[in-house]
């Protein structure tokens, strides 16, 4: 047990260093100070009071920013054993000075297999974790699911993967020392997801399961407050976002940037409450019996305490805890795929 814990945490240490080195090689680090939100400047207390009006009405927070109903544009496809992967993009409902971020990019995995019941088992909508330069792991999961008749959608969050502005590393502008811009970015991510999901519904996706890895799980939890999916599975995710940043190994530089902007731990809790499952999970539209949590026992990125808290605020749904740290969950992908198939089996 002790050796297992040490090895898993050591793997996390190495991966955290590797990600830090990669960021340093790909972009000059720029600390972003707190800015205005929708053109208005707030103190932490004022922003908390403003957003508190949406704590029981999350749809109101996103309604003016939903992606337009424009049809997505296809950008080619690649065949594999059990189907095809198709690249799509469509306009975001939120536009800004970075043209790369003004379009939603997502991949659609279309299964050619038929399930044992003789029909497809539905569509998985999957969001990757923070700082992932590509979505290879997510696509690997979805290709495996295609063998069971499951289609999938993998969307890039704002300022990530193809949406990364020149001179930046993926995700660094999505969550930054500009804590108000981070809230706006989360809002854009939810609104973009609604655009993709509503398009998928229109294309005949009758049963949709939401899934997210790490920060992707936080974002999926917010999407589930405004989109009535049939099921949801959150992988190594948590809540109490300000505390995760304050205590996590991967977010030490981010914490320093936030503190340089004059924002403390309690301030961050107040500002990010509107995008924190700790505040918002009571609005979840997915039935508790159709929610699954996959947790990591030795995590130093999202500490087990914050994963436990997410489980509690979601009403203690069915949960499995892996003997792994954050990044070493990759050694359990086969079991993760099996649990997704089980959840999506009628």
What does this molecule look like?
The chain has a single domain (2-344), classed as Rossmann fold, CATH 3.40.50.1820. It has helices spanning 2-26, 44-52, 58-62, 136-146, 179-202, 215-223, 241-247, 252-260, 265-271, 277-280, 304-313, 333-344; strands at 73-80, 83-91, 103-111, 122-127, 150-155, 208-213, 231-235, 291-296, 318-322. The chain is built from twelve helices and nine strands. Strands 1-2-3-5-4-6-7-8-9 form a nine-stranded mixed sheet, with helices on both faces. The longest helix is centred in the N-terminal third of the chain and has 25 residues, at 2-26. The chain starts with a helix and ends with a helix. It is globular, with a radius of gyration of 19 Å. α5 (179-202) crosses α6 (215-223). It is an alpha/beta fold and 346 residues long.
The coarse overall form would be: globular
Helix content: 25-40%
CATH architecture descriptor text: 3-Layer(aba) Sandwich
Rg, rounded, reads 19 Å
Task: Give the DSSP E fraction (strand runs of 2 or more residues).
Answer: 15-25%
Major sheet summary line = 9 strands, mixed
Mean pLDDT: 89
The number of helical segments is 12
The tally of beta strands, per DSSP, is 9
Count of discrete domains: 1
CATH domain topology:
Rossmann fold
Distance between the termini: 37 Å
The H/E string reads HHHEEEEHEHEHEHHHHEHEH
Structural class of the helix and strand makeup?
Answer: alpha/beta
Q: Output the strand order for the largest sheet.
A: 1-2-3-5-4-6-7-8-9
Low-pLDDT segments, ≥5 res: 10-14, 20-29
